[in-house]
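Postdoc handover notes: sequence design on the structure in folder B. Input tokens:
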């Protein structure tokens, strides 16, 4: 007998069908499909939100308002619902209510450049141009090619007779815009603006409304699909033990291998699952999960699914809004930390600090000399280092070789080092400099294994991963240590040097080779104690818990680690 039973569409199929109608512009059909579904499923937030967008597009603002309010009751932290209410209230001239909704949007989604711009427009309409200027500037920082924000801030500056400031803004905008256009593929179009906004003048009508659909709702996976996606790099025998969060580790560069190191440890040691997305590869050849610069379309699509379905985001360096890779759409006060590694803070520390202060997203940095230069940062952990990968140094017999890894000879004081070694050789010392440039990390480690000492740098006043590698190999490490760095770790085993005494300090160890061994052992122990990956992993885990759950008391120091038999 032929089965005549009709299959009942599930929620995902209903949303997809309604979305197709919405995209085609048939808002009445969208409302009809979703209204039928919502009769029996009145608390399905996805359906309510999509119906609200369709109702608003068709001009039924009252019904749309009711739908968005219902969504907020179900999902109180849903930023796009607040944003859409703000647009509806703007259209109706309810400006105080619109301002409140846009401010709430930014509390939930601090990197929403469009909400910043739209809120700035409303502040302009109420004469609060100082606040508006700050918002337009912040929107441009997040999206340097944002036309509306540029036009708005330019008009404010020009109207105040700040012509030079306005022209400087215009020059900077056009420079960044030309870079963006040059990088854009020919088939790509600029993103559709959510509102055509300029600072309103006396006779200007309210801006036209374009309601925001839910952000990539169709990319959202079921719980099982999410767990499968984030388990891809988890060792198979551990997958059944994973009961925690799905964590996306994302960075523009894999700085010193710290991001992939963290992601591996999360998968191997904790109750959580993790994936790691690196935007741009480099020559150091650290291990990887997904590297988008390799140009594989399937990797890019998988990366989009990862950022759209993570519970928590560990971001390396300041996140820039990007229409093609919309990471910033998902970052919230209670699901994100952003980790910095020095150079960004040196060049833009105060602005970054104020950005974090205003949106309450947690910033994380290693203890770093940049903390004393316009970057009063709020949380500090050491760099992690797995010393098990390091080959131990050769014993100090025969020619003593001094490694010097450098990426910038001027900053690292390479010529000063070479002159010091040359003067010692002229005095009869059997010593050889080994300058390491343009090598992969493994090649660097192999070369260091042939040396007994390392000259790190006399520039920043603190040590980094290169010095840690050399200490782990048992080297005597020479480096400049500032008073600030010494205040953190006065007992660090680096041999503290200055430009005037570098040759003298090297000579001492050439004359006392037995102390090369003793200082090398001290470095090995220091790295184990202060840069142990599992210890630093635990710091990260409790920071995640603090961000996610607020300040609370814990019962067990290892409650996020796997308990393996």
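Designed sequence:
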């Amino acid at each position: 007998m032929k089965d005549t039973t009709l299959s009942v569409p599930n929620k995902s199929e209903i949303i997809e069908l309604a979305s197709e109608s919405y995209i085609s512009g048939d808002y009445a059909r969208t409302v009809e499909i979703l209204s039928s579904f919502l009769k029996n499923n009145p608390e399905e937030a996805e359906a309510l939100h999509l119906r609200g967008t369709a109702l608003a597009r068709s001009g039924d603002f009252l019904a749309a308002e009711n739908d968005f309010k219902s969504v907020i009751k179900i999902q109180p932290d849903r930023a796009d619902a607040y944003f859409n209410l703000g647009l509806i209230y703007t259209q109706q001239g309810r400006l105080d209510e619109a301002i409140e909704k846009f401010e709430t949007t930014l509390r939930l989604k601090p990197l929403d450049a469009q909400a910043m711009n739209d809120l700035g427009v409303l502040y302009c309409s109420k004469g609060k141009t100082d606040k508006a200027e700050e918002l337009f500037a912040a929107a441009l920082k997040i999206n340097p090619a944002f036309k509306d924000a540029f036009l708005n801030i330019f008009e404010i500056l020009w109207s105040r007779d700040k012509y030079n400031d306005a022209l400087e803004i215009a020059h900077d905008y056009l420079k960044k815009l030309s870079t963006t256009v040059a990088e854009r593929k020919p088939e790509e179009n600029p993103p559709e603006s959510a509102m055509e906004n300029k600072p309103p003048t006396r006779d200007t009508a309210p801006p036209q409304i374009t309601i925001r659909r839910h952000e990539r709702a169709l990319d959202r996976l079921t719980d099982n699909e999410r767990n499968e996606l984030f388990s891809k790099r988890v060792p198979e025998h551990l997958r059944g033990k994973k009961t925690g969060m799905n964590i996306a580790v994302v960075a523009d560069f894999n700085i010193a291998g710290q991001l992939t190191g963290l992601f591996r440890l999360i998968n191997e040691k904790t109750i959580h699952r993790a994936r790691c997305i690196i935007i741009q590869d480099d020559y150091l050849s650290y291990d990887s999960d997904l590297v988008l610069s390799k140009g594989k379309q399937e990797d890019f699509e998988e990366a989009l699914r990862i950022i759209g379905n993570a519970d928590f985001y560990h971001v390396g360096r300041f996140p820039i809004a990007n229409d093609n890779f919309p990471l910033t759409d998902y970052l919230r006060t209670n699901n994100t930390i952003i980790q910095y590694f020095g150079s960004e803070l040196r060049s833009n520390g105060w602005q970054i600090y104020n950005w974090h202060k205003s949106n309450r997203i947690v910033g994380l940095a290693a203890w770093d000399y940049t903390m004393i230069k316009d970057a009063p940062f709020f949380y500090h952990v050491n760099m992690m280092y797995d010393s098990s990968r390091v080959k131990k140094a050769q014993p100090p017999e025969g020619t003593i070789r001094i490694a010097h890894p450098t990426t910038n000879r001027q900053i690292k004081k390479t010529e000063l080092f070479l002159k010091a070694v040359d003067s010692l050789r002229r005095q009869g010392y059997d010593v050889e400099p080994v300058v390491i440039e343009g090598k992969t990390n493994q090649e660097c480690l192999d070369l260091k294994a042939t040396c007994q000492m390392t000259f790190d740098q006399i520039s920043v006043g603190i040590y980094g991963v290169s010095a840690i590698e050399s200490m782990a190999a048992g080297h005597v490490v020479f480096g400049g240590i500032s008073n600030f760095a010494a205040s953190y770790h006065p007992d660090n085993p680096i041999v503290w040097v200055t430009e005037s005494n570098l040759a003298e300090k090297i000579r001492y160890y050439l004359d006392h080779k037995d102390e090369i061994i003793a200082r090398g052992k001290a470095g090995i122990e220091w790295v184990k104690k202060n840069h142990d990956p599992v210890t630093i992993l635990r710091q990260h885990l409790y920071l995640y818990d603090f961000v996610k759950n607020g300040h609370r008391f814990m019962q067990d120091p290892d409650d996020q680690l796997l308990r393996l038999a």
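Context for whoever picks this up: Residues 1-6, 180-210, 213-218 have pLDDT under 50 and may be disordered. Don't rerun without checking with the PI first.
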